[in-house]
UniProtKB/TrEMBL annotation:
Species assigned in the record: Rhizopogon vesiculosus
Region (Disordered): 35-63
Pfam families, per the entry: Abhydrolase_6
Domain AB hydrolase-1: 101-361
Protein name stated in the entry: Protein phosphatase methylesterase 1
Length: 386
């Protein structure tokens, strides 16, 4: 870390502990999915029902991997006004004036979903740009001292802005930021950008990963049917990882081994509601998608028009070109945003997990075209510090 960042973030930041793949740290192929497409839910394609899968012995090829090899630091950022203690994964820029790419995951996922991408960005950018990912409320290792049930878009946007303001207290001295959001997280970044700009934060650009308003809104009425085929739990972390790979939800086994342990918890964990349907499993979802249903209608409406209205550079990355809605098709023809299509047999809804190298190249090019400002960071607390 440069002296500039060292003075801003200070000794309270600790190195990322070597998090072992333990229990503590740790939808989708139906006919309906064929009709609506993998992107349409904004949350991925529906899985093969658990009953259709044959029990398999625990496979060492699906053992969890620590995030320590992908981020340089794990941090806890307290947001008292939001009653949240947010888990943040961070790799700072190596040089004075380096900017930061901020990554917001989609519904049901966690900051570790960006682990492989973060490592690729650091390599391609040679440390000149930092990477910051985090767990949203009711996701991953973020906890709350009050009820955190509300996942409406306004609450998520307020959380996101509060996190940026807590990490970078002085907007004038903050690094240039690029906001990157996957699915639901893309909607949060689009809405948060003008708010942060009003507070004088410098936003080089906003990148939205594999979500389009039109297709996402169309499929929301079908989500309950899709989720009926989603397993309620797993007997081991390895089984959860293997299920995500076998169903094609994540095509990159290495990424799955890093990201999946953050999205499931032991069956007796108080972090997520206990239901009778998961009583037979040793592990359950940290964020059951069915529990987020009351908030789906708030996530995607107006996303396309808000995206096109941003006063920053705009990038849309899709897994398939057919997923553009009418508003975005017109905007694309008018040259209002940069469109990248990562089509291919090995790329699905989780584009950042499936092909992190290619996406890192795209984001690097996007950054280089739009970042021009020299800035700095602020003080946060390292994981494990008293």
């Amino acid at each position: 870390m440069s002296s500039l960042y060292r003075s801003a973030i200070s000794a309270r930041i600790a190195k990322l502990p070597q998090l072992p793949p333990t229990d503590e740290d740790n939808v989708e192929q139906s006919e309906l999915a064929d009709e609506i497409g993998a992107l349409s839910t904004g949350m991925g394609p529906p899985p093969v029902p658990r009953s259709a899968r044959k029990p398999t012995p625990q496979n060492p090829q699906f053992q969890p991997l620590s995030s320590a090899a992908y981020f340089s630091q794990a941090l806890q950022v307290a947001l008292p006004t939001r009653a949240l203690d947010v888990r943040v994964y961070y790799t700072p820029p190596k040089y004075d004036g380096g900017g930061v790419i901020v990554l917001h995951h989609g519904a049901g996922y966690a900051g570790t979903s960006f682990a492989c991408l973060a490592k690729e960005i650091s390599g391609i950018m040679k440390g000149g740009v930092g990477v910051l990912a985090f767990d949203a409320r009711r996701h991953g290792k973020t906890t709350s001292s009050q009820s955190d049930e509300n996942l409406s878009i306004d609450v998520l946007v307020e959380d996101f802005c509060a996190l940026i303001q807590a990490i970078y207290l002085d907007a004038a001295a903050a690094p240039t930021l690029m906001l990157v959001g996957h699915s639901m997280g893309g909607s949060v970044c689009v809405r948060a950008c003008p708010i942060l700009q009003q507070h004088k934060y410098k936003i080089a650009g906003v990148a939205v990963l594999d979500v389009v308003e039109g297709t996402a809104v169309e499929v929301l009425p079908h989500m309950q049917t899709i989720l009926n085929s989603r397993p309620e739990g797993f007997d081991s972390i390895e089984e959860a990882i293997e299920w995500h790979v076998d169903t094609g939800l994540i095509h990159n086994p290495t990424s799955a081994r890093v990201s999946i342990p953050s999205i499931i918890v032991p069956a007796d964990s108080p972090l997520t509601p206990t239901t009778r349907t998961n009583s037979g499993f040793k592990y359950k979802w940290r964020t059951p998608l069915r529990s987020t249903a009351p908030y789906w209608d708030s996530w995607f409406p107006s996303l396309s028009s808000l995206f096109l209205a941003l006063r920053s550079a705009r990038l849309l990355v899709l897994a398939g070109a057919e997923r553009l809605d009418t508003t975005l098709m017109v905007g694309q023809m008018q040259g209002k945003f940069w469109l990248e299509v990562m089509a291919g047999s090995g790329v699905g809804h989780l584009v950042h997990e499936d092909d992190p190298t290619r996406l890192a190249e795209i984001l690097s090019d996007f950054w280089k075209r739009n970042e021009r400002v020299v800035v700095r960071g602020n003080v946060i607390k390292g994981v494990g510090e008293v």
